[in-house]
Fold each of these.
Amino acid sequence: MRKSLRNLVCQVVAHSFILTGVVRYATRKALNSKCILSLYFHKPSKAEFEWCIQWLKKNGFRFISLDDVERVKNGEIPFPKGSVLLTVDDGWRSNVPNVVEVAIRHEVPVTIFVSTSPVEEGAYWWSYVHQAKQKGLIPYTKYELKKMPEQTRVGILQEIKKKVNPGRDAMTVDEVKTISAYPYITIGAHTHTHPILINCNQKQIYEELKISRQKLESWIGKEVDYFAYPNGDYSTREAQILKNLKYRLAFSSDPKYLTPESLRNSFTLPRFGFLEGASTAENICRMIGIWQPLMMKLSRFPYLKPKKNNKEIIQESMPKGGPSPA
Ligand SMILES: [Zn+2]
């Protein structure tokens, strides 16, 4: 489906969730239950990121840092009902004006998980792939490369790099260093070359996790203890290696709330994804945590008819003890 058509269809669906009170119910539930809205972005526009902060503030949410989340997990501070954690993956250059400057102006904490090789070299591997594909130099898409064994992917990328020049779309080392010193900004790791970790062997995973952390720590002069899995892909093996390397928390892209229960697993913390370019209605549903769970449920049924009603589905994905459905 073309992107514009996809966005239009999803906008209509999202509006139906808003008009039927599903969003209002989920918002009230999120504000009054023991759950944190854990969100991730990639490269939002300034307008998108600012709108997101304003919408969450207007609806009564308050923003907490990743350090706060760890203190909640360790029982050092009470569980903060009605709170939001903002994270951003990759370290895109546009994050500096569009995320960092906006976060500082609104006094909102943000954690940015940075891949170090693109920072050193200029671009992410899928930018090389996209350009090579556009020029007809390769038959593969980035989705196909994501499924290949790591050694195969690396070999293909080395060949592509000789043929294209995608320029720079990642932050520079100086930019990472500069923003790390700002209030409200935390830097986390996101591997060195942004491989799909489940396609790597054990040695490759250790190297990716060690190199990226060493580089980030040498650039910013601070310890780096938090991590986000590239593409959200992980298994118990990756979680165990992070634990062995004494990382403290790691985020997936499993679309669930951060609850006392999900906080028990330090290396599989969930997040809801904000979709850049989608409608505001869809992103309201995404931020409030109903979009992905509802879509997953709906996709299992012929004619998109769920057996359970939407409020029951939201109820299942939240901790017990919240208010009754309105
Ligand atoms: Zn990433």
Amino acid sequence: MASIRNFIELLDSKGQILRVNRPVNGQEAAAIVWELNERRGPAVWFKSVDGSRIPMVANLFGEFSRMVLALGLPEDATPRMIRDYYAKTLRHREKWLKPVMVGTGPCKEVILKGDEIDLMKFPIIKWAPFDGGPYITLNGTISKDQQLGRNMGMYRVHVVNKNTTGIMALSMQDIGIHLARARARGERYLEVAVVIGMSPSQYCASTTKMGAVTDDEYDLSGALAGQPDKVVRCESIDVDVPAEAEIVIEGRLYHDEPLQEGPYGEWMGYYEESMVTPTFHVTCVTHRKDPLYVTGSMGHQYGEGEVFRYLPIQSNLYNVLRKSVIGFRDCLLPIQGRGYKAVVQIQKRYPGWAKQAIYATLSAGYGCSSVNWVTVVDEDIDIFNADEVFFAEATRVDPELDVIVFPGQGVYPLSPAARKRYEAKDLGHAQGFTEFAWCSKIGIDATRKMEDEMRRATPDRVLPDLETLNLVRSKWEEYTK
Ligand SMILES: Cc1cc2nc3c(=O)[nH]c(=O)nc-3n(C[C@H](O)[C@H](O)[C@H](O)COP(=O)(O)O)c2cc1C
Ligand SMILES: [Mn+2]
């Protein structure tokens, strides 16, 4: 799928887009998207939000079934199959496809500079009632570094006025690394393009922590799409953007202009306090002649924030743990855990292996740095079934022996449980911006215990005689008539 329009057509053909033709305000649009998430409902196309003449499309990716369509997988694919496909595509770098540069594209049909620039003409809404302002929520934020190459990432964008925004460019994210290097070179700003309405594979790549800062998200996008991405050079900056995008906002991100943005209702279901971010000054806006403003909501368990984060973070954790955990079978960040809780399944053949799995999971690296709780279970526990994980935690844990609490450490700044958040004084690469929080971590060994684990062995589970159970099941009508 080369563009978001292809995806919208596909969803339309399957009756997966709700049309809202009456004009609504931003809070009504947000409430409709929330209700659609409650119902695990379709995507939505709004003709006019907050009086804008540009339609707003939301919730395109807010359900696993639509993510399956976006990635061209069989329609009955489970979240686990989607994860396996994504993890494999990330591993098989030899199949990644380089983008091709083209002269121009639909994203350049309208070019606006100087006084013509007005972000307010797009239906960029305030999503939650106590948000600090309107946010661009789904984007590819693209920049370039002479040595490291191109980068695309999804970072929240707080719109302040018609040509100014904040961008949450943390120093630990690739955009932050680019910005820090610009600062070290003595430059005041980094050239950045915020792209809205990209192809599904570009959106996915934008949310993915690649193997290295030098990896180009376009290469992964090409592999996911099965064809190379087409990119065009921006008008006012030296950055390459998807030729078939709906809207491109070009500008300069200033590291010496701190901006107090937020608060913002985040993916995990809480308002995260206001943050200090660099300031983005828009130099040019280009868009299609009839652009669609593509966006999504945060905060709901089944909203786009969670479904989008599911794929890359699950896949990175899986790819790391399959190499580092002894007896590894599977892992999951259950959607209810919002990225903070991991469950790891192992085949435990020696005493203490579950503890090793705890250490490995909490050391899995940046891609999974939000995890502050890991539970390890055996193969008889279906980790995709929260009831079973709960059962294991309740019945296989002697807290004194099986719970390990690790001291506080620096973690991703968005963490409702974190005891404190920090604006970096001067980390060398960042000054004054909100960069990290402080939180401890916990590991729970919920595997069945062996006698060699300093106790009596976990008793056997109660199950009926399996032969008889199968017999009864196969002749149910006869037994019960
Ligand atoms: C909907 C959505 C919103 C996100 N917003 C942010 C954000 O505001 N700040 C951030 O650091 N990461 C955010 N992320 C996570 C990043 O997109 C992700 O870590 C990605 O790997 C960043 O790109 P990079 O690895 O090239 O830096 C968001 C992810 C999703 C799915
Ligand atoms: Mn990156």
